[in-house]
Amino acid sequence: MFLTNKKKMAYYLLIMDDQKRLDMNKLKEITGEKRIKLASKESLMEKMKLPAGVVSIFGLLNNDEKDIHVYFDKEITKESRMSFHPNVNTKTIFLDTNDIFKFLDNIDYNYSIIDI
Questions:
Q1: In sequence order, which residues have a C-beta less than 8 Å from that of residue 25 and are 6 or more positions away?
Q2: In the prediction, which pLDDT does 87 show?
Q3: What range(s) does the YbaK/aminoacyl-tRNA synthetase-associated domain occupy (predicted)?
Q4: What is the mean predicted confidence (pLDDT) over 87-112?
Q5: What CATH code is carried by the domain that includes residue 105?
Q6: How far apart are CA 19 and CA 22, in angstroms?
Q7: Widest CA span of the chain, in angstroms?
Q8: What pTM does this model have?
Q9: For the chain, how many structural domains are there in total?
Q10: pLDDT digit string (tens) for 52-96?
Q11: Residue 75: domain span
Q12: DSSP string of 46-99?
């Protein structure tokens, strides 16, 4: 999920199982925000150069400012693989979870593993 705060000054990429229900209050507590909402399709295009419906870690390659906070729910990090759209929603690729973290390290992107 690609999220933002009320003033659209902070952005968050949250990676979690799509079957899990997000506890927004807990996420607000973790981020220190008073209000968090889904970011607009315009913000997604501006920050990650991705169209609506294609939120992916690969969009981070387009975020030169590196101003998107990346969070992984700790439950999903226990999975051996994760799936993502490769910047188009007509395909899905499966990656080894450890390779995802290596990818983020290689593009010099910080991330946090959280319990939501």
A1: none
A2: 84
A3: 2-103
A4: 94
A5: 3.90.960.10
A6: 9
A7: 36
A8: 0.92
A9: 1
A10: 888 999 999 999 999 999 999 999 999 999 999 888 888 999 999
A11: 2-114
A12: HHH---TT---GGGGGG-TT--EEEEEEHHHHTSSEEEE-SSSTT--EEEEHHH
